[in-house]
C-alpha cells in the first residue's frame, strides 16, 4: 500500500467516526456575528491553524478549499461570500465528502444565512485538481500538504498555482519542524497521514512555494503543535513540532528574488524626519515599517547606527515594504 492509500484510509476512518484528538489546534473556534459552527464540525476539525483571514475575503472572491474535513472552514469561507457555488471544496475521500455534505445540512439548520449550495463539493485529488486554470482568487488547504512527500508536495503546490488567478492567494496551515526526524518516523505511513512525521523546516516549506513561482510569501502565525517523545514514538530524542499559517501570493517573481515576510520591521531613529533607501522604502522617524527578509538584509548591509531591524516574529499581518 502506498502512503497515499494509507492517508486515504485514515481519513475514511476519521469521516466515519469523528476523532477529536486527530489534529490539534490552539486556535479558538471562530466566533462571528450570526455564525454558528455545529458541534460535529468542531469535532471534525482536523486542521492545525486557521486559513480564514477576513482581509483575504473582501469583494466576493472565488474560493477553493482542498481537503474538506468536516467542512468547518468552508462554512467560515461561505460566511464571507454567501453565493451559490462561491466556495469549491475538493476531497479525494468519498466518506469525507459525504460527512461534510451532512454537516452542511446541519449548518443550514443553525445558520439562517447559510445554504448548502454555497459550497460546491467535488471529488478530486490535490495532485490533479478538477478546477480550471486561473479561475480562483483564494485557495486554501489546512493540514494536508505536510503529509505529501517531496515530489507530491511539488505537484500539489503547482496545482494550486495553476488554478489561481494572477495575484490570487494560497492560504495554508501546516505543521513544521526544525529538528531532524529519523527515517523510521519519516517512513511511518500512518504517522505521516496523521500529520506527525511529514513536516519540513519553515525555510524548506517556504522554498517549495517560491520554487513554484509565488513571488510573495507571508508567514502569519507560528505556534506550538505537538511533541514526539521516545515513550510513544520511534525516536530517541524529544521532537517539537510547530504549526504555521502562511499565505503564498501569485505575484510575479521579483528579479532580485521573492519577498518573504516573517514579521520583521525596521525603525529609523536618526536626526532627520525620514530615511529613504531610494528603492521604494521610506522609513518615517520612530515608526515601524514591516519589511520582507530581503529588505531587512539590504538595510542591515548599510551598517547604519540609526536603523533598527527587529527579529522575525512570524506574525505578519499586512502592510509594509515591496
Ligand atoms: C488532516 S485532514 C484536514 C481537514 C480539514 N482541512 C480541516 O482543517 O479540518 C486532511 C483532509 O484531506 C483529505 N485528503 C487526503 N488526501 C487527499 C488528496 N490527495 N487530495 C485531496 N484531499 C485529500 C482528507 O480526506 C481530509 O479531509
TrEMBL record:
The keyword Cell wall biogenesis/degradation does not apply. The keyword Coiled coil does not apply. One of its GO terms (biological process) is methylation. SUPFAM superfamilies: S-adenosyl-L-methionine-dependent methyltransferases. This is Arsenosugar biosynthesis arsenite methyltransferase ArsM. Residues 64-172 form the Methyltransferase type domain. Keywords: Methyltransferase, Transferase.
